[in-house]
Amino acid sequence: MAQTRLPMHHAREILRLSREMKMTGRAIAKSLSLSTSTVSKYLKHLECVPWPLPEPGGEALLATTLGKKSVPSPPLRTEPDWDTVHRELQSHKGVTLLLLWEEYRQEVKDKGYSYSRFCAHYADYAKRLKPSFRNIYTPGDRLFVDYAGTAVPIRDPKTGEVCLSAQVFVSVLGFSAYVYSEAGGFQDLDPPCDPRLKNPPNEFQGGSVCPPLNRFFR
Question: Which of 130 and 176 is assigned the larger pLDDT?
Fold first, then answer.
């Protein structure tokens, strides 16, 4: 199936921005919302066309040059189902935007967004969701602790076999969002002062003594 070429006014504008405004291919692509590769192909294809276009006959020359061979037009992007993307992120442990983007690209191939654009569009979508309540914390007043979902396999460096499924302990200060994490083989810690922690968060995050247990939140 033959690909539709760019409209004449786009081809003319690419020439004008390149010859008259001395813009780079990347700058032209950004200005016209085209891919850099598409702009580069058109610039190469139109090298023989003078600028300014001669009068009379300039438009006919441009049309004839464009008609000599098919120049690919930028593919239309297939929009992801952002509701599904958001639901997958919220309901499944270990699911990330990268994993969802890879699945999306496998399905839509070259008609999909790049990873950076995928993340940017999702961020825009997330901003439109119902806002959540924002908690305000006093410095040093709250320490949140939990385990980071899926265990991490630890492998024997000699055999490569999994010898331990490590539980990742995480703590974060409510005010500063300062994070401490450590992998271990247990999920029964008494944070943040448990002696089994190599570098207890009350030391790593600057605490001097264990605060009351009602200051810990899971």
Answer: 176
Contacts of 201 (CB under 8 A, 6+ apart): 143, 145, 171, 180, 191, 192, 207
| pLDDT score at 155 | 84
Q: Are strands 152-155 and 179-184 parallel, antiparallel or unpaired?
A: unpaired
pLDDT higher than 90, residue 43: no
CB distance 85 to 119 below 8 Å = no
What are 154's strand-pairing partners? 164
